[in-house]
Amino acid sequence: MIEYQTIEELEEHIQFVRQKIQQIAKDVIAVFREDFPQFIEREVRQIFLSDGDFARSLDDDKLKQLKDRIKVLGESAAQTVLAKLEDQALWFAGGIPDDDPKDLSANTRLWAIVDEIGQPVRELLKQFGYSGSAEIGYKSPRRFVSGKYLPSLAEAYWRWIGELKEAQSRVDTIRAEDESKALLERWNSF
After folding, report:
1. What gap in Å lies between CA 190 and CA 175, rounded to an integer?
2. Range(s) of the domain holding residue 118
3. Domain count, the chain
């Protein structure tokens, strides 16, 4: 991070960094907008293919109904989760990840919302008689979606979050030092 000398310079930099994070959030939401409906279809398809008992329990009509419901559910569930992700406070929550900066799951408040996309899948499968124990949870796509690569967006996000936290910490330090100086001057004036 560039060393800024004054609180005003730091606050200006903080505004710049916040704008960068907000742009990344928009790009990530664009990825989710396209990938969430695909995720629902991928998960149901994977369970259908891996659980022979479940697959055999569906006659052709039920299978067609399931696939039709996937399309409707994909759009409605995605819209519900995406609306929650518009809350800018989510994107500034949490700390810096210790391990994989190519993933957003270290922002637990944000990822809890993202992971809600799995609940409608579980409910749909249950409605169609699935009683298995497959783990259904959203995983960041490791491919280009909407012309964007989520691991790169995540790396940029965490880099800017780190810079934001560093700048905010510097502002707090300068303010504390200024207050200490002012108190010392006041003390020494009498």
Report:
1. 24
2. 7-188
3. 1
